[in-house]
């Protein structure tokens, strides 16, 4: 074979392309064999949120628990902190970067370290994990299960911090590792 | 109706997608893996099994892959592993069609030449198509798809030296078809 022939064969790499309908055929076949979960786009998305949430809960529980222990370790109590209190609501959508396999401990450590650093400034109040067993009470008296909103993802937990105003609360929240991993944080001032 | 709007490349690694897929058997992760790896797999199926059987081979490849992903140990790239599955599916197709693979790959043999029936010049694609499966296999993997001999060896469960020697014979057989319109009996009978 002359030297150009392997190069010519490389040109064959450009075609053919898979027929578009083949993807649906194969997905349907795998669903029929129960090799993938039969889910529409919407419910598949919710399934992903649920899985992400399950992983994140582990990190949050450990991180929040570490934060809560700060009170007993000499950190400021809720009564002692000055200024308003803000709830930092932690959301996860599909852009949240889950830790690599084996990296969960390091992720937990980051959340814990962040809570300690905020506590050292006297701005940390509390942290709690939220379960997924929620009910939405509607004005008409009906109830429904709360499902994650597509835009912001699932609400997985919260911290309560103290700050003189929203800007200071935002500055504190901006340092939370949750944002670095693609999660969203909603700040809400606590009334009263 | 499944969502087809996600035509952009999924930024997640194969490892991450496989890990999530194994946790959830999720359609989203499967589709991401499918879209990433199907184009080269489809080209191989098209050229090794033929246009009429390429879809069936690809479907069987993904079924086997989805069933066995849990036992994949990442000793090779995911695509190499998928290629190995596809080759075995192609060989099954050949056996089903009476094209039994009998020649130990890498075995040196005398190659007497005889005149091709028509004497017409074949283009590269047709010449490739006319090769026996064993030669077509290594030419498609190496010269068309660009796999290394080490990758081919892992996919075909042979040693790299066997891939090299088989490729040399395959190129020689292809050259015969392109240059002189001759055909070797060994190509038809033995090198499948």
How would you summarize the topology of this molecule?
The complex is a heterodimer of chains A (192) and B (192).
Chain A: H1 4-11, H2 20-32, H3 41-72, E1 84-92, H4 104-120, E2 124-129, E3 135-137, E4 143-145, E5 154-163, H5 166-173, H6 177-180, E6 184-189
Antiparallel strand pairs in A: 1-5, 1-6, 2-5, 3-4
Helix pairs in contact in A: 3-4
Chain B: H1 14-24, H2 27-48, H3 54-68, H4 78-96, E1 114-115, H5 124-130, H6 133-144, H7 149-156, H8 160-179, E2 182-183, H9 185-189
Antiparallel strand pairs in B: 1-2
Helix pairs in contact in B: 1-2, 2-3, 2-4, 3-4, 4-7, 6-8, 7-8
Summarize the structure.
By secondary structure, chain A is α+β, with helices and mostly antiparallel strands. Chain A is built from 6 helices and 6 strands.
Figure out the total of helices of chain A.
6
Determine the structural class of chain B based on helices, strands and strand pairing. mainly alpha
Number of strands of chain A: 6
Q: Percent helix among the residues of chain A? A: 40-55%
| CA distance, first residue to last residue of chain B | 43 Å
Treating each run of at least 4 consecutive H or I residues as one helix, how many helices of chain B?
Answer: 9
The largest sheet of chain A is: 4 strands, antiparallel
Task: Walk across the major sheet of chain A and give the strand order.
Answer: 2-5-1-6
Shape of chain A: elongated
DSSP summary, beta strand count of chain B? 2
Mean pLDDT of chain B: 77
- The best one-word shape of chain B is elongated
Which strand-content bin applies to the residues of chain B? Answer: under 5%
Q: Greatest interface and its residue counts?
A: A-B, 39 and 47 residues
């Amino acid at each position: 074979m002359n030297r150009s022939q392997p190069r010519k064969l490389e040109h064959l790499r450009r075609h053919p392309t898979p027929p578009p309908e083949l993807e649906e055929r194969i997905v349907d076949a795998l669903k029929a064999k129960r090799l993938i979960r039969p889910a529409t786009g919407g419910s598949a998305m919710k399934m992903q949120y649920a899985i992400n949430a399950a992983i994140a809960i582990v990190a949050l529980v450990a991180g929040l628990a570490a934060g809560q222990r700060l009170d007993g370790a000499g950190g400021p109590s809720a009564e002692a902190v000055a200024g308003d209190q803000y709830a930092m609501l932690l959301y996860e959508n599909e852009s949240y970067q889950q830790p690599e396999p084996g990296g969960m401990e390091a992720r937990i450590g980051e959340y814990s370290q962040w809570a300690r650093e905020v506590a050292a400034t006297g701005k940390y109040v509390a942290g709690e994990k939220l379960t997924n067993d929620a009910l939405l009470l509607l004005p008409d008296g009906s109830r429904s299960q709360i499902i994650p909103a597509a835009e912001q993802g699932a609400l997985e937990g919260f911290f309560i911090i103290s700050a003189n105003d929203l800007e200071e609360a935002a500055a504190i929240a901006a340092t939370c590792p949750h944002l670095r991993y693609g999660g969203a944080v909603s700040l809400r001032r606590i009334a009263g | 109706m499944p969502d087809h709007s996600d035509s952009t490349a999924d930024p997640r690694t194969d490892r991450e997608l496989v890990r999530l897929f194994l946790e959830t058997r999720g359609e989203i992760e499967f589709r991401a893996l499918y879209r990433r790896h199907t184009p080269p797999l489809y080209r191989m199926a098209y050229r090794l099994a033929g246009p009429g059987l390429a879809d069936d081979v690809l479907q069987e490849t993904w079924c086997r892959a989805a069933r066995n992903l849990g036992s994949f140990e990442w000793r090779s790239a995911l695509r190499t592993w998928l290629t190995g599955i596809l080759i075995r599916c192609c060989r099954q197709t050949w056996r089903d069609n009476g094209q039994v693979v009998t020649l130990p790959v890498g075995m040196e043999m005398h190659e007497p030449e005889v005149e091709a029936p028509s004497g017409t010049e074949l283009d590269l694609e047709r010449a490739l198509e006319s090769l026996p499966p064993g030669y077509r296999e290594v030419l498609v993997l190496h010269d068309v798809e660009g796999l290394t001999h080490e990758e081919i060896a892992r996919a075909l469960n042979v040693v790299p030296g066997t891939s090299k020697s088989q490729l040399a014979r395959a190129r020689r057989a292809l050259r015969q078809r392109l240059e002189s319109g001759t055909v070797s009996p060994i190509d038809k009978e033995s090198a499948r």
